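Sample entry (240 residues):
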Amino acid sequence: MRWVTDRTGRFPQRPHYEPRELDHECEQIVLEFLKNKYSEVKFPISTDDMTILIEHDTSHLDLYADLSNEGQDIEGVTDFFPDKKPAVRIAEDLSLQNWRENRLRTTLMHEYGHVKLHAFLWDFNRPRLFVDSELARGPRCRRETILNALKTDWMEWQAGYASGSLLMPITNLRGLVGAALRDWGLYKYLPADSDEAQVLIKRTVEMFNVSSEAARVRLSQLGYLSKLAQTASIFDKQEG
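Predicted structure, serialized as tokens:
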């Protein structure tokens, strides 16, 4: 991690994480948790285990929060405080509607990303919290930015990347992708519109219990899927 100027103006400086740093840190969090609890690592990580993970690092987790006053399409909120651990609130619809479990899982890990990556910012900027009420507000996370925030919205992008990395840790995901590519005799990336890409997304969904969209975003971020249309050369076996 290195410090860079926060061009959003929220903080004088903000942390910049390389994707490999986030992948390493998130993987270590998940592996340590699973090994301590089960003495082994198996995926998918359960939704109940996600809540335990969050509760360890927060002062409160509310899975049935009324977020209607926070703004349109807000599905998760992380509140930071200068004198205690953060608190996480999740929109009640995500917990009450069973068919939205994948969305719940993604949102839980998104908010946990804020907790792990950003809580220290509120400690560093404590004097400003008493005079800047807007700064004192933690991130309010909208449906459309849980997965697909622009990099210019650095806090949401980092939490979104962490969400995918926690749900689909890098080593296990690489193993899944590598096995698939070997089976198909392929290398490099897959065009996102290819049949193989859809199979890879499906396998990722099944292994990690995530939505197809979450799987697609994660695979794209890691460079396994390309926006380029199919070309025959991509599917040629690598020579010698």
